[in-house]
Design a protein that fits this description.
By secondary structure, the protein is an alpha/beta fold. The chain is built from 4 helices and 39 strands. The strands form 6 sheets. Strands 8-11-14-17-20-25-28-31-34-37-39 form an 11-stranded parallel beta sheet, with no helix packed on it. The chain has a 10-stranded parallel beta sheet with strand order 9-12-15-18-21-26-29-32-35-38, with no helix packed on it. The termini are far apart.
Length: about 350
């Protein structure tokens, strides 16, 4: 944005209530601890309230209740974190690419590139590919045969799209991501693995974001499908024929095995793993490092494994886990004895 940004403008942009000088100029965003004059900050997590009294921010995004006792300028709004997310784009320094095809790019004769798209240095666009209006392809991107990128897509440098990948509108893909690689499919013949051709593609909806070095494999027969509004962090593996429902989010290093189906509005924290051929219903939250080995049919929060504890305590717990089978057998014997005694019979032992 080239025109000066003022507190008054931000209040109008957000629909917030302004408490302070409308004409105060704002030059950026920062945390409560680091903000200086000219920068806006926000308070969303109560543990950072201790910094509110000493912040040097020009103004703070606050819930009305949190503004009580704060003497500085403020933008009062119901959800400060969402407000911060919205105004962050006003200060984003990411360069805007110019329309046109760089002289070093290679574009197949029958590929279609909208005149408003930006095709960077050394990009390769293969036969039959279609690049829509407003798309940006960073340097060294590869767009495979018959692949389609919808309007407003933004691909950072070194993104690879194999053949027959279909991407919706306003999709962001970060560097190193590979979409449409061959899924891990093999048949065993007397101890020798025979490759299965992966003849499906990948279909990605609108408003999807895909992080650095994330891989989405093509389908074995049908397409691998990623719904609208899905957000994928860095270094995620999505295997062939996986289906991910609309507005589901996954943190870094999640691994999804083949043909798993994940519902809408789910959240998978870092390092979660899913075995293949299971289904996760809508509105499920899976905590970090959880291994999901069966389908989840009820919304809610799910965990597996053990939380961090001091090493000495963990070793004791691990030792007890190894003893569980023996403890279970002894408990069953005690239950039989108690049952015999309470019923007036003679107790006996299985030895």
């Amino acid at each position: 944005m080239t025109a000066p940004i003022t507190l008054g403008y931000l209040a109008e942009f957000l629909g917030a209530t302004l408490r302070g000088a409308q004409n105060k100029r704002i030059t950026g965003l920062a945390t409560l601890q680091e903000a200086g004059p000219g920068q806006v900050s926000f308070l969303a997590n109560p543990q950072y309230r201790k910094f509110l009294s000493t912040t040097q921010a020009a103004a703070v995004l606050l819930k009305p209740a949190d503004a009580e006792g704060y003497a500085g300028d403020a933008l009062l709004i119901t959800d400060p974190y969402l407000a911060y997310a919205r105004i962050s784009h006003l200060f984003d320094p990411k360069p805007i690419a110019e329309a046109g095809i760089h002289a070093s790019a290679t574009v197949a004769a029958d590929a279609t590139v909208d005149p408003s798209a930006s095709v960077g240095p050394y990009v390769v666009i293969e036969s039959g590919a279609r690049i829509a209006a407003g798309v940006t392809l960073g340097a060294h991107c590869y767009i495979g045969a018959r692949s389609v990128i919808g309007e407003g897509g933004w691909l950072a440098p070194r993104v690879t799209l194999y053949h027959d990948v279909r991407i919706g509108q306003r999709v962001t893909i970060q560097s190193g991501a590979v979409i449409g690689g061959e899924g891990f499919g093999f048949a065993n013949e007397k101890g020798i693995w025979r490759k299965i051709a992966q003849i499906g593609g990948v279909t990605i909806g609108d408003d999807v974001e895909i992080g650095v070095n994330t891989a989405i494999d093509r389908g074995a027969m049908d397409d691998t499908r990623i719904g609208n509004g899905v957000k994928l962090d860095n270094q995620i593996q999505i295997a062939h024929n996986v289906q991910v429902g609309d507005h589901t989010a996954m943190a870094a290093c999640v691994g999804i095995s083949g043909s798993a189906k994940i519902g809408k509005h789910c959240m998978l924290a870092g390092g979660v793993g899913l075995v293949g051929h299971i289904e996760i219903c809508d509105n499920v939250f899976i905590t970090g490092m959880t291994m999901v080995t069966r389908s989840i049919t009820e919304p809610g929060s799910y965990s597996s494994g053990t939380a961090m504890q001091p090493a000495a305590e963990w070793r004791k717990s691990a030792a007890r886990i190894r003893q569980l089978d023996d403890m279970s057998r002894r408990l069953q014997q005690l239950e039989k004895i108690v049952e015999a005694v309470t019923s007036g019979g003679k107790a006996s032992s299985d030895g």
